[in-house]
Description:
single chain, alpha/beta, Rossmann fold, Dehydroquinate synthase-like, alpha domain, seven-stranded mixed sheet, two-stranded antiparallel ribbon, NAD, nucleotide binding, 3-dehydroquinate synthase activity, cobalt
Amino acid sequence: MKSITTKNAIVHFNSKVYSELSSYIKSSKPSKIFILVDTNTHEYCLPKFLSQLESEDIVVEVMEMPEGEDHKTIDICTGVWEALSEYEADRKSLLINLGGGVVTDLGGFVASTYMRGIDYINVPTSLLAMVDASVGGKTGVDLGVLKNQIGIISEGSMVLIDTSYLETLPPNHMVSGYAEMLKHGLIFDKGYWENLVNFENMDISELDKLIYDSVIIKNTIVSQDIKEQGLRKTLNFGHTLGHAIESYFLGNADKTPLLHGEAIAIGMVLESYLSTKVCGLSTDEFKKIKEGILKTFSKVNIEKRDQDVIIDFLKHDKKNSHGKVNFVLLESIGKPKIDCEANNDLILEAFKDYNS
Length: 356
């Protein structure tokens, strides 16, 4: 697969990954190499990665963080910053983030702020990180249960996508990443959406091409609007309500936390319903979207008392402006509209439709 050039970095795939990493290390000559993993990638991914790493006699240190969204915090960042300092990392050090979206988000933030910035490389090991989290330069951590409230946009030097790491993923994490791929189709390419939504009829060998196409879509959008002033906002389709749902389930002891993609899938169904009322999305297309998503993602019971709290979470959404909650909605599949408003009654109506 041909490498994809982003605004300030480059994305390499499969056969090119380790040779390009080796070339980068030879040319940049980092003083030390640090590898950030979580509990799972330490066990399942690190041995393979180290066997392929040509470090040119450079000292390599491994740092491990706990796995899971609830550890995507400033406290964990502090631990990583302190470890970097203890191991005498300097401004010529290189941080390699080997993991899913939590590792790439947090690791990118740590690298971008340690000594005002050191080089970093993302090596995504989950489907979600390959198609979304590791590409585009968004780094950061959560503030309590509020998603991605602290962070900066800062691209690493490279993204290295080796799809063989997907063999280490449990099925629910594969499905979680699939949600972001569906989103790319809904906001950008109807044909891509139709290919994905009929994925059960396709050969699994086609997954690499679908991942590649998803990265192309995201890069096409991000490269035109790196700071999210306009077009890049479309990537937030499903995320206004999806993030609120994810935060609510993460912070409620009575609920089982949802994976990011599971929450975003619900958000996309809800925001597609809003689209029929606000942007003229046809009933036929809404039905196709709802059925296409729900044949893969099981419905989650969201009661009325849950809905009220979830709506209250919307006031913390990063897309808000001047006290207004802004949604990305759809005029049709492949044609999004940014900065849309929907009142609480309409949102409750969307929940009623989802539960029906």
